[in-house]
Amino acid sequence: MVQARSVRPLVAPSSAFPTLEGSGTWIIIPCYRVRDHILKVIAKIPSWCEGIICVDDGCPDKSGDFIEAAKADSRVAIVRLSKNRGVGGAVLAGYAEAIRRGARVLVKVDGDDQMDLGYIPHLVAPILLGEADYTKGNRFTSISHLKSMPSVRVFGNAALSFAAKVSTGYWNVFDPTNGFTAIESCVADRVMEKQISQRFFFETDLLYHLGTLRAVVRDVPIPARYGEEVSNLRIGAIVGPFALKHFTNFCQRVMGQYFVRDFHAATLELIFGAIFLAFGGTYGIHWLATRNPHQSASAGVVMAAALPVIVGTQMLLQAMNFDVLNTPSRPIHPYLRTIRQMEASEHAS
Predict the structure, then answer these.
(1) Which PANTHER family does this entry report, sorted A to Z (predicted)?
(2) CATH number of the structural domain 25-251+333-348
(3) For the residues of 67-112, what is the DSSP string, one character each?
(4) 74 with 154: CB under 8 angstroms?
(5) What are the residue boundaries of the structural domains of the chain, listed by start?
(6) Over the stretch 201-236, which tens digit does the pLDDT of each residue have?
């Protein structure tokens, strides 16, 4: 049975531009060992944001009690998790609580004072205008934005960004691990039904699951900021697991998008491209392994190996090009919000 929720009216395309006041924007802050910074973060949250959900993620410093005792802001609500779920689990718990309280736009902010909260309107605006379902910060839109970012992070984020493009299908976004994000509540409600990774892979896995919904994702240029905060992420510990998760998501995405939900020209290019490439490569390797050491390859042998490889590679590149152009472009939240309104009206009558 579907429970009726408080629903904000859908803004028609012909209406005046939406305002930040009354936009139903709520801030989600996962709190784990951020006691030294969290009150400064809360103090910087704009007055037009309707509420703040601070999620005590089983914090050993008891962040929830600390925030509650400080009484820093009347908009703050505390969610306490009995055990640590990771950043993803904390954010999802915050999403659920904000949606229960009637939020329309959910902005995730880290509690370490690393994010410039002056960019919150930049994240919220595309959603209020009906141009995106999910927005995220991108620190790679300008060289000047990268001056404060350590070189190892620049290289690591660039590599992770390309892997995320392949695995999620969002070829138009970059910097997938950026945690400064905003999502429309109806979309968040739907995506929370998925099995999303709750640890450090959360942001990238969320993108993958948004892709299964065909949600529109937009990057927002935001400069990097680094201060005294200490990251809990250890590069050496996540390379292997991240690579495996990316490969798994890529295989599931291709199977679901090109073989289950639909059948495109790209599907044929994938099939025959893989066959040709495998045949040409196998034939060439087999000939090299079994040939006489003094035997030269004839023109026929060369063509039998090279031509399938060339054709197969071209077909796979064409399939990749199709995939790039197949990025979602029509937001889904107006449809989802209309359905929610209709369900609420039906339950009210």
Answers:
(1) SLR5056 PROTEIN, UNDECAPRENYL-PHOSPHATE 4-DEOXY-4-FORMAMIDO-L-ARABINOSE TRANSFERASE-RELATED
(2) 3.90.550.10
(3) HHHHT--TTEEEEEESS--HHHHHHHHHHHHHHHTT-SEEEE--TT
(4) no
(5) 25-251+333-348, 265-325
(6) 999 999 999 999 999 999 999 887 665 555 555 555
